[in-house]
């Protein structure tokens, strides 16, 4: 199987690819194979996105069912958070071409991919993934918690199977927008009280929501959050996506945007079939890369103020929500130094996981599920 790519009609392409030919729509058809050293081919069978000059739709890794397909059928689409403005069809910032459907905003509210487990009559638990990741990271946590709780994991806008609007066409990926979007989503999927579990760099965003909605929360569990002053800066692996020009390039690289971003944060040995779930959004549309680039820039600019606000709220006498921090001790992005002292000062319960890294739920999902269950019971 081969990658099937459609190029706009450009005069010099035949010079470099003599075997390609122009079709009736004035696009050149080029068939190539993608392969890593000493590993089997990537089997990408993807029709060209209409009007999108460099992205695919429908990419897959093999002819048989994939983990990504299996995960997708477990979830559902929930509409929440109103799209602002109406600027017409989104165009990519590099070539000015109209983007494919995956990069276009909904006409009214954004579509969020959510996976639910457990009886709806049980207490609600919401699992919030980190940056950059997906709800898939909680796949081992869901079965554990679903025994006694109604648990939901979702993909943030710009990630996984949720909407990935082109920046400035309905969503700009700034942290204030994410805070408002989270509030809108929770109103839809968990109208009653809930326990909130948040991992990584999205913790300050969830914390801002929590500070204004304490009456909604039973428990708040933060998993390796940026909680000290030294944490208020993106690691180089993520900051790279915010760089001018290079950020646009590297955010379109499926390996760098998924594998390297995840594996550099801790001592993980991810299976190839799981890695392909994280790669899929970047293989199937350029919209994932543009979202990553936009959020990285905003996170780099505003993370410090958000971390400072989170620290202030947790120190405040007005903070009344039961709060626990779970910490993977082998986190390569966020140092443990200062975490224990902060928890001591604020009377926040601290749970240490000696063998886990930054994305605790990825490698020790079942153990984290049992810890969460013990905290909120």
Can you describe this structure?
By secondary structure, the chain is an alpha/beta fold. It is 33% helix and 19% strand. It contains 13 helices and 13 strands. The strands form 3 sheets. An 8-stranded mixed beta sheet has the order 6-7-9-8-10-11-12-13, sandwiched between helices. The chain has a 3-stranded antiparallel beta sheet with strand order 1-3-2, with no helix packed on it. It is globular and about 55 Å long.
Q: Counting H and I runs of at least 4 residues, what is the number of helices?
A: 13
Q: Hey, roughly how much beta strand do the residues contain?
A: 15-25%
The first-to-last residue Cα distance is 51 Å
Shape: globular
Q: List unreliable stretches of 5+ residues.
A: 1-61
Coarse structural class: alpha/beta
User: Averaging pLDDT over every residue, what do you get?
Assistant: 84
Order of helices and strands: EHEEEEHEEEHEHEHEHHHHHEHEHH
Radius of gyration: 21 Å
Reading side by side through the largest sheet, how are the strands ordered? Answer: 6-7-9-8-10-11-12-13
State the helical fraction: 25-40%
Q: Major β-sheet, in short?
A: 8 strands, mixed
How many E strands?
A: 13
């Amino acid at each position: 199987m081969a990658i099937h790519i459609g190029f706009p009609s450009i005069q010099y392409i035949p010079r470099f690819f003599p075997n390609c030919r122009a079709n009736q729509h004035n696009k050149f058809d080029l068939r190539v194979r993608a392969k890593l050293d000493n590993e089997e081919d990537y089997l990408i069978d993807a029709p060209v996105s209409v009007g999108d000059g460099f992205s695919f739709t429908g990419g897959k890794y093999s002819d048989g069912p994939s983990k990504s397909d299996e995960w997708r059928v477990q979830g559902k689409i929930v509409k929440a958070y109103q799209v602002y403005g109406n600027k017409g069809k989104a165009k990519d910032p590099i070539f000015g071409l109209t983007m494919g459907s995956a990069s276009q905003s909904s006409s009214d509210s954004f579509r969020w991919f959510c996976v639910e487990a457990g009886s709806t009559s049980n207490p609600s638990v919401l699992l919030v993934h980190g940056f950059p990741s997906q709800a898939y990271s909680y796949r081992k946590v869901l079965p554990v918690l679903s025994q006694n709780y109604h648990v939901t994991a979702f993909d943030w806008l710009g990630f996984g199977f949720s909407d990935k609007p082109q920046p400035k066409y309905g969503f700009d990926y700034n942290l204030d927008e994410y805070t408002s979007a989270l509030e809108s989503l929770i109103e839809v999927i968990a109208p009653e009280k809930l326990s909130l579990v948040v991992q990584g760099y999205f913790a300050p965003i969830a914390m801002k929501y929590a500070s204004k909605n304490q009456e909604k929360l039973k428990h708040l569990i933060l998993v390796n959050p940026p909680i000290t002053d030294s944490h208020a800066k993106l690691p180089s692996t993520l900051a790279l996506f915010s760089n001018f020009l290079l950020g646009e390039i590297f955010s379109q690289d499926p390996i760098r945007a998924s594998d390297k971003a995840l594996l550099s944060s801790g001592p993980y040995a991810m299976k190839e079939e799981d890695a392909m779930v994280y790669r899929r959004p970047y293989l199937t549309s350029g919209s994932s890369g543009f979202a990553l680039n936009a959020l990285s820039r905003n996170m780099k600019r505003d993370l410090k103020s958000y971390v400072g606000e989170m620290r202030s709220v947790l120190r405040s006498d007005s903070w009344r929500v039961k709060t626990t921090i779970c910490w993977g001790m082998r986190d390569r992005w966020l140092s443990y130094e200062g975490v224990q002292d902060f928890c001591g000062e604020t009377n926040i319960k601290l749970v240490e996981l000696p063998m886990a890294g930054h994305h605790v739920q990825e490698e020790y999902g079942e153990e984290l599920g049992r810890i969460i269950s013990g905290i909120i019971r």
